[in-house]
Amino acid sequence: MTAEEPPGYEEGEPPCGRLPGSGDYTLVMDGCHVYPAEPPSSFLYKLNSPVCQAAAKVYRVEKIRYRLSDNDGEGRIMSRLDYIYDFQTKFRYHSFNHFRPQVIVEGKTSKTRTYKAVTISPSVTGWTSCSAEGHFKAKTSLRDRFNKEVRILWKNRAGALVAVEMRRRDGGDESLPRLQIKIPLGEQDLDLLVTCWAARLWKEAEKEMEQPLTWKGAMRTLGRKDNWFGRGTAHLI
Q1: What is the pTM of this model?
Q2: What is the span of the domain harbouring residue 135?
């Protein structure tokens, strides 16, 4: 890929003729990159950090735009990064003893290209199911949570199935997260869906990497002076 200045948004086209707009294709999340499972497999999206490692606090989503340039009769593919979304955790107060973590997705372009702000909330059972307010809902059955291949169904506001998320637990290339797009989506909705998918994977990985709370750790927390729930419990330690 060249560092030459690429075209504007309206001129850029992906090298894969099926994207965006067509249905029935699969996207793969591999580290910081998202690409089609079927060739030609050029990168379509780039993140600043692998979501499945849950190492960042704020994630940046960039779309890779391509164009075929004709220089001296020879076609060359040029690309540029288009910064489309950020997402990060926001805590919302719901009750005296319950702060609910949510993900806020913030659009970084004009409102005709990206959505300004979208809130993603987990289900009561965690991030295996979630909803992107006003846009998508992701849900997995209790049975599927214990299968070797996890399947999560993504539906739109009308309840139509738009994508199926798949990931094997037994390692290998097939363990990479995959998102099978089932129906044609406009570019704005596809970009948001990919971003919501990345955010869900991040929060799920973050939860899996949490250290289990031990009795000693709980007592240490209760005994801290800045812990107002435990001011009267220091004598227990």
Answers
A1: 0.78
A2: 25-208
